[in-house]
């Protein structure tokens, strides 16, 4: 049970690939934010999202090395 | 842009340059080991770097001076398409998190220093080891040369023309790398990265207010692209595949390079590497904001001879003398860290996988360190000569090919961490097809890393490196499945 949850956390790391490697998903101007077209702030937003997902994976990894 | 010498800017620049030079030489006494006459100490800093040192070192080494100059330049010229560097440097970290701790452990347990060592240890094949090591060296050489291109751009903006200032900077770098090894760039990286953070944060906070806000920055860039008829704030439909495959392929290639691997092998634990996969994206945020300087160049109405001048020209136009001197110093020092680590990585490869393998198998630890130190000098002088005597375009084309070449070492280096199924001849065949095929496709496209594909519908382009990698893997799998093993696979 515990182990499968930890394995599941690693699957979180697939999410950034889906969010970023399919450009039609975000190739648009609107909605703009602080003057940034969507294309730009969407991709910039993935930096903290990916760091957070990686942190969750980090928390659920056993560091025996 | 004017290129008269600004006294204040030059003084600030020289101050910081002198500071890191002193640090570079002091580094040989920093975290002093019993002896530096061992390749583990000279070439990997004793495999002792913790979270912070690794963060500064890998950050300073992966986000190079060339990046600081070239990414905004590309965005300035083509718009949205140049932004692929952002998804690239995001999706690289989940990969680092999953793969690099395993690779690090393999290297630490068996005392491997290079990718070539890992491959030789896994497959016992000198041929595959040589292929991986040689690919690493030739992919890195033009990369070092490009750091000099980044440096030239800021020296030019400071009014320092000609090759002499560049040569002096590089020779100083070569000398302290020779004496302190990886400790020199690791120590300098602290100064360099903090300076770059200050510069970029100041730039993205202050410049837009001088140019009427971000909305106006984007609008001016849009207008400039419309007027020019080239470039766009968004991707065109036929650029989707190129954008995504460039990002993905570059991310897979990034940590196959000797300089990034050196940073990984030099860290003290798998945990340090995982923690860095969480923390290193801070640099990516910086890179994304930096890329926008390309658009600010349009908003500021800069008239440029070369797109590579956009960042220096922007600082020079909008900032006071002392701060532009500070910014230029940050970029120039930013060239020194990766150039040092790259030359160390290439030197380690030459020493371990060529000198030790073919010339002197019984070389002592001290002898190994000696060979690596001398090689690092030769590599840097070579890069300097390339930049001085050959057209810059030559280094650019080679670096582009370098990315495709280094990606072809991924199956040999990474697959063995997970499975013992593959054998050396199949991986070597795959590498050969990927390397030669990729090179041919790039040449065929007029030295462009994109390959045109039309599957009935509208034609689109795809990153050649990824295409070559697919062929590489397909050949490796096919050969491995068809050709029977002569000897039982090594456990």
TrEMBL record, chain A:
UniProt key word Transmembrane: yes
Highest taxon, organism lineage: Bacteria
Transmembrane residue ranges: 9-26, 38-58
Family matches, as Pfam families: DUF3311 (PF11755)
InterPro entries in the cross-refs: DUF3311
Alphabetical keyword list: Membrane, Transmembrane, Transmembrane helix
Name of the featured protein: DUF3311 domain-containing protein
Species annotation: Rhizobium giardinii
Lineage: Bacteria, Pseudomonadati, Pseudomonadota, Alphaproteobacteria, Hyphomicrobiales
TrEMBL record, chain B:
Protein name as annotated: SSS family solute:Na+ symporter
Signal sequence residues: none
Protein family per UniProt: Belongs to the sodium:solute symporter (SSF) (TC 2.A.21) family.
Alphabetic keyword roster: Membrane, Transmembrane, Transmembrane helix, Transport
Listed GO MF terms: transmembrane transporter activity
One GO cellular component term: plasma membrane
Coiled coil start-end: none
Membrane topology: Multi-pass membrane protein
CDD domains: SLC5sbd (cd10322)
Species for this entry: Rhizobium giardinii
């Amino acid at each position: 049970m515990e182990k499968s949850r930890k394995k599941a956390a690693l699957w979180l790391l697939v999410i950034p690939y889906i969010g970023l490697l399919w450009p039609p998903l975000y190739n648009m101007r609107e909605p703009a934010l602080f003057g940034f077209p969507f294309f730009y702030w969407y991709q910039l937003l993935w930096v903290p999202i990916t760091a957070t997902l990686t942190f969750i994976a980090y928390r659920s990894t056993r560091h025996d090395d | 842009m004017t290129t008269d010498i600004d006294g204040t800017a030059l003084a600030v620049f020289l101050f910081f340059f002198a500071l890191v030079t002193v640090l570079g030489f002091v580094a040989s006494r920093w975290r002093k080991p019993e002896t530096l006459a061992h390749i583990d100490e000279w070439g990997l800093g004793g495999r002792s770097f913790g979270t912070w040192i690794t963060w500064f070192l890998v950050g300073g080494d992966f986000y190079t001076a060339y990046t600081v100059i070239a990414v905004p330049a590309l965005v300035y010229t083509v718009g949205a398409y140049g932004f692929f560097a952002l998804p690239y440097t995001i999706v690289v970290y989940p990969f680092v998190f999953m793969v690099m701790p395993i690779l690090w452990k393999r290297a630490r347990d068996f005392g491997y220093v290079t990718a070539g060592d890992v491959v030789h240890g896994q497959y016992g094949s000198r041929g595959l080891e040589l292929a991986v090591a040689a690919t690493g060296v030739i992919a890195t050489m033009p990369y070092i040369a490009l750091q000099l291109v980044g440096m030239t751009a800021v020296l030019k903006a400071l009014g320092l023309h000609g090759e002499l200032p560049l040569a002096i900077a590089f020779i100083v770098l070569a000398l302290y790398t020779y004496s302190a090894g990886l400790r020199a760039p690791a120590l300098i990286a602290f100064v360099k990265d903090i300076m770059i953070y200050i510069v970029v944060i100041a730039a993205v906070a202050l410049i837009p207010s001088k140019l009427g806000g971000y909305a106006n920055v984007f609008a001016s860039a849009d207008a400039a692209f419309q007027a020019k008829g080239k470039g766009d704030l968004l991707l065109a439909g036929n650029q989707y595949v190129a954008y995504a495959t460039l990002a993905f392929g570059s991310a897979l290639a990034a940590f196959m390079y000797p300089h990034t691997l050196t940073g990984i092998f030099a860290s003290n634990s798998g945990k340090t590497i995982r923690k860095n996969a969480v923390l290193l994206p801070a640099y990516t945020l910086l890179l994304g904001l930096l890329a926008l300087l390309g658009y600010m160049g349009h908003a500021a109405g800069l008239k440029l001879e070369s797109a590579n001048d956009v960042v220096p020209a922007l600082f020079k136009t909008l900032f006071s003398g002392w701060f532009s001197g500070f910014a230029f110093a940050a970029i120039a020092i930013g060239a020194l860290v990766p150039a040092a680590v790259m030359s160390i990585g290439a030197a380690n490869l030459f020493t371990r996988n060529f000198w030790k393998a073919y010339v002197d198998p019984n070389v002592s630890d001290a002898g190994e360190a000696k060979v690596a130190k001398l090689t690092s000098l030769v590599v840097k002088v070579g890069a300097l000569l390339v930049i001085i005597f050959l057209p810059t375009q030559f280094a650019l084309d080679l670096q582009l090919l370098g990315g495709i070449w280094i990606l072809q070492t991924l199956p040999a280096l990474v697959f063995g961490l997970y499975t013992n199924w593959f054998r050396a001849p199949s991986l070597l065949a795959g590498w050969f097809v990927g390397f030669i095929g990729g090179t041919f496709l790039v040449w065929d496209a007029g030295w462009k890393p994109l390959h045109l594909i039309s599957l009935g519908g509208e034609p689109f382009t795809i990153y050649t490196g990824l295409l070559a990698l697919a062929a590489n893997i397909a050949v490796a799998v096919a050969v491995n499945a068809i050709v029977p093993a002569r000897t039982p696979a090594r456990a």
